[in-house]
Amino acid sequence: MDFVEEISLLREKLEQYNREYYELDAPSVSDFEYDALSRRLRQLEAQHPEAASPDSPTNRVGGAALEKFAPVRHLVPLESLNDVFSLDELSDFLTRTNAAVESAEYVAEPKIDGLSVAVEYRGGALFQGATRGDGVTGEDVTENLRTIESLPKTIPNAPERLIARGEVYMSREVFEELNAEREIRGEKLLANPRNAAAGSLRQLDPAVAAERRLSIIFFNLQYSSGGGFSTHLETLDKLEALGFPVVPHRLCGSFADCREFIEHLGETREELPYGIDGAVIKLNSLPDRAALGSTAKAPRWAAAFKYPPEQKESVVLDVVVGVGRTGVLTPKAVVQPVRLAGTSVTNATLHNQDNIDRLDLRIGDTVIIQKAGEIIPEILSVVLEKRPEGTVPFRLPDACPECGSPAERDPDGSALRCTSPECPAQRLRNIAHFASRGAMDVEGLGISVAQALINAGLLTSPAGLYYLEAQSVAAVERMGKKSAENLLSAIEGSKSAGLARLLTAFGIRQVGQKAAKVLARRYSNLDKLLAAPEEELKLIPDVGPITAKNLTDWFKNPQSQHQIELLRAAGVSFESTESVLDTRFAGKTFVLTGALEGFTRDEAAAIIEGFGGKASGSVSKKTSYVLAGEAAGSKLTKARELGVPVIDENEFKEMIK
Question: Which residue of 239, 269, 299, 593 has the fewest CB atoms within a 10 Å radius of its CB?
């Protein structure tokens, strides 16, 4: 590949990654990988100035403002920073700056991994807040910023106009709490705190942003009417005096001072409440900054030191298997302690059996472990030449290590899962799901209340809800007599929720609200569904063979049977409240082709499905009927070739009378 092709490819990749990071908040590569590509592109552009382009990603900051937010043009551009990846490169930066500035001093700060914003105050009141965007134009996220408790809404004794630049972040603690709640509810987990913060700040509904409990910390005074500052330290002191949370910082007079700060920050970064992706070294003097100026993308008076991902050898002492709140068996390697990214690592994630097989991991192996930035320690590879004799490949158990129930692989993924409704590891998730709005809809029984009841020893399974006693519930911390009465009343009311909600509440794999309603229309009560053979279930539209097997396997489980009998004894209704439809087309598949006069294709398909049939898009030997309208095409031809019955619109109307 020549340099022209490589430059073109690098620009294309970086454009894609910029959009993922800045606009979609869903990066597909690590910061380290992105930085390596960006660095290579800058190197090639420097070597071949004839290939330079003002549109290159190396000349732009961030991404475009999203159209769903009003654009805000920044009074002072929100510039990016030039990165350095070693102490030698940092020394070169300081040497160049010292040559241009007499008696230079620097301020060192952590580079917080969040979303950069500019917040403007007028007359001491919060006026507007905007994301960085492309550095010149950002997005108006004022209302979402108002939900951040640590952001001052008014500032006393403030200048008439003030603009401060900060970083919105999600703390490690909040990130872990939100993911724990999302796991219990069966929702997709947030990828990392940075993406979570960026996505939360870009919510159209401020109430959603408020639920995410974001924080903000400030690192620059962009503008202040009246001015009067000569150093960066003075501006940070001013922001702090006005009530802004300010980034920790240190004045450095030499390269040794900067190196000491960077090394100490690297060793202690796990103790910070927020994630960082480096350290920033800034010239302290504001007049000297102005004299040095900026390139098209970044100031010449600052640099961001990026911590490289560390990789070290260790030995696998054991593999332990836990069970997540959704029943997934989660293997992790117990390794000889090794220090990575400032912490002592004793465990590393193994993800699943597929990953273990890919690594060919065995207990006793010497492995390479990596922890890049805030990433959970993971095993990259096995050092095969150091493998001891007699080792055997590791396999996850066939039974749940918590409750002993069979563990089964998801048909649509690599996870091995315990499906027991009484598994202790899944207790909180199962109870919270059972009581959720889409299931039995027990008002007042959220995750925190369910956890409190479990902690008090009052609840061990979903069916146990119907055996709670008012006096015991009232004694639970932060409940009281009235709250207990309301909760038990809601639980009692849920007994008549009906078969569809009950099936949803069971949490059977692939049996959501839609499939549950289909089953409740087909079977008038739970006992009739229990008696239905798998072969019959798999013919039902919106059920199919995989869901049918999930249903029958769940019903066969002794723990499931125990839950059903507890619910029966408690008086929970097993009867369907859904309208039982005419199932004249049950087991029949229709293919529609051509234009119909009395129906649209969607209307005809809905009628077919309403009578228990299935509307398909392609003709095969298993097709029951082809409904042909005007100008029918290749589907009609294929039907005739296969001998599939063909009906016209009038015949269809007769069939649905």
Answer: 299
CA atoms within 13 A on the CB side of 236: 19
Q: What is the CA radius of gyration of the chain?
A: 31
Residue 282: its H or E element: strand 276-283
Q: For the chain, how are helix, strand and coil distributed in percent, rounded to 5?
A: 40, 20, 40
Pairing of strands 106-112, 250-252: antiparallel
How far is it, in rounded angstroms, from Cα 30 to Cα 27? 7
CA–CA distance, 374 with 171 (Å, rounded to integer) = 12
Cβ-proximal residues to 28 (8 Å cutoff; 6+ apart), any chain: 17, 20
Q: Which of 305, 326, 347 is the last residue of a domain?
A: 305
Task: Answer whether residue 393 is part of any domain.
Answer: no
Contact present, 298 and 279 (Cβ < 8 Å): no
CA end-to-end span of the chain, whole Å?
Answer: 68
**Helical (H) or strand (E) element with 16:** helix 3-18
pLDDT tens per residue across span 51-67: 777 667 766 544 444 45
Exposed, middle or buried, 538 (CB in 10 Å: 0-12/13-18/19+)? middle
Q: SS3 string of 452-517?
A: HHHHCCCCCCHHHHHHCCHHHHHCCCCCHHHHHHHHHHHHHHHHHCCHHHHHHHHCCCCCCHHHHH
CATH code, 447? 1.10.150.20
Report the alpha-carbon distance of residue 333 to residue 249 in Å, rounded.
37
Tokens encoding 201: 């700040």
Asked if the structure places residue 411 within a domain, the reply is no
- The tokens describing 380, both together, are 């990259």
Going 490 to 496 to 497 to 502, the CA torsion angle's sign is positive
In 3D space, the residue among 236, 277, 279 whose CA is nearest the CA of residue 259 turns out to be 279
Buried b (16+ CB within 10 A) or exposed e, 128-159: bbbbbbbbbbbbbbbebbebbeebbeebeebb
Distance in angstroms (rounded) separating the CA atoms of residues 152 and 124: 10
Task: Give the H or E element holding residue 251.
Answer: strand 250-252
Instruction: Count structural domains, the chain.
Output: 5
Q: What is the phi/psi pair of residue 288, to 5°?
A: -65, -35
451: containing domain = 424-570
User: Which residues are part of the catalytic machinery?
Assistant: 111
pTM over 0.70: no
pLDDT digits (tens, 9 = 90+) for 625-634: 999 988 788 8
**Structural tokens at position 596:** 């119909």
Phi first, then psi: give them for residue 381, nearest 5 degrees: -165, 165
For 566, counting Cβ atoms within 10 Å of its Cβ (0-12 exposed, 13-18 middle, 19+ buried), the class is middle
The token pair that represents 247 in the structure block: 């980034």
DSSP 194: H
Asked if 252 contacts 264 with a C-beta cutoff of 8 angstroms, the reply is: no
Q: What are the two backbone dihedrals, phi and then psi, of residue 239, each rounded to the nearest 5 degrees?
A: -60, -40
What's the Cα-to-Cα distance from 631 to each of 358, 453, 592, 603, rounded to whole Å? 53, 65, 12, 19
User: What is the longest distance spanned by two Cα atoms in the chain?
Assistant: 95
Whether 385 shows a pLDDT value over 90: the answer reads: yes
Of the two residues 455 and 598, the one the predictor is more confident about is 455
